[in-house]
Amino acid sequence: MKKQTPFDATALLEEAEASEHKEAYRTLERNTNYRIGAGVRLTPPNPPTFFVEILIYLCPSFTNANLNALEKSLTCLKELKARNYTLTCQDGNCISCEAAVPKQHLAEEYANVKAVMKNSFS
Predict the structure, then answer these.
(1) For a tag site, which of 22, 67, 74, 95 has the least CB within 10 Å?
(2) What domains does the chain contain, in order, with CATH numbers?
(3) d(CA 59, CA 44)
(4) pTM here?
(5) How does pLDDT run across 48-93, given as a tens digit for each residue?
(6) How far apart are CA 19 and CA 105, in angstroms?
(7) What is the dihedral of CA 76, 6, 105, 35, to 10 degrees?
(8) Euclidean distance between CA atoms 52 and 61, whole angstroms
């Protein structure tokens, strides 16, 4: 049996085709500040849309607001916006950042945004 990678476009497509919502998603990295994932959406007759999504958690402690953490989040959000990610407020105290990515560039984009996250939150 072939081992799947998070960027296995064929496996993501098969999963999306079998799903009720015609979408498949893999979480690639998660910590208290953010979550990074990759996925695909099917919206026939259009071709499949591959994407990278980052959720930025604004107040991970859910107690007192941490201004230092908020500043880091803002820096990160500005960088993602400059990289043409759409930013959308979500329930649960987070902002969803998403960009469509050609399937052959999913691994490269993940490496790039992972570096952005590390730089922003270190």
Answers:
(1) 67
(2) 9-121 (3.30.1460)
(3) 38
(4) 0.88
(5) 999 999 999 988 666 777 888 889 999 999 999 999 999 999 987 8
(6) 24
(7) -10
(8) 25
